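User
New here, help please:
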Amino acid sequence: MRTLIFLLRKEFKQIFRDKAILAIIFVMPSVQLIIMPLAANYEVKKINLAVVDNDKSTYTQKLISQITSSGYFRLQSYNASYNDAYESIKSDKADLILEIPHGFERNLVRENKEKIFVAINAINGTKANLGGAYLSTIIGNFNNDLRMKLTVGSRFSQATTIEIASSNWFNMYMNYRLFFVPGILAILVTLVGSFLTALNIVREKEVGTIEQINVTPIKKHHFILGKLIPFWVLANVIFTIGLLLGRFVYGISPVGNFGLLYLFVGVYLLAALGLGLLISTFADTQQQAMLIMFFFMMVFILMGGLFTPIESMPQWAQIITKFNPVRYFIEVMRMVILKGSTLRDVASQFIAVILFAIVLNSWAILNYKKRN
């Protein structure tokens, strides 16, 4: 125990002596957590719209006004023909074309129906799908309002109608930051835990101090614990700072139990630290360790459910995500913070990260060679 205390003292002195490391540990995650949710917006707005109005009636002006006043669309051009509007699509100045035919108002009033044409630039599939859905919804609402105004007296249908009242649970106002911030915090904690652990041990190899440690009577488990515990503590500090920033910057207060969050983070960090330790046993330089960690972090981020729902991924990708520890951390963060889930609700995620911690740390310890 005394040996471990000396090693921990040495590690903390070494960390706090390096100002760059302190900035990486404390400043960079805080700045990222503040800026990224503001910049990465799940909403699609300012969709450029090119309009071809062949009718130029009162109804067409109302329709165009309703579309542009929605806040999602920006009238990019008002064209005389479809070919002119198509040129704006080709030059990437417009995202959608709305063409209104001749006799639009007359046919609506006399025949109660009319068709309009919508062309969508689908290079950006997400923007195209959402833009088309927004426009269809606005046109549908305009159509319903118009029918209510035109329908009078005997023409009014007495058919039974169903009114639907919806309620959004756990995120009443559909604020994407409530969904996004816990995921970013999970990624940042993973970075601090695994990335810095790998670099710290590999740095010992580069400067040659690990050779001095190898010829000392220090036990293998003392050396490994001395390397892991400081970053386990620092990662918990980063997690606490992240929760405070989420509370005071974004107004996110966990609905669930704080103790459950810290319990899960404590276990999860054992897996993240084990990954960093494992990578350090294979890498001989910090550059190698950084490239290996970069590969894993890209996979963890893109296949962890931070940006894309795992349920929307192909079946083979969903199977791969089961071997991604970040996936379980992001799920638990959102479940506890937004839904107030209990230990029973996150039991499967708990078991998964415990298995990750056992496998990764055991593999790293077996792979670590200490020359006596």
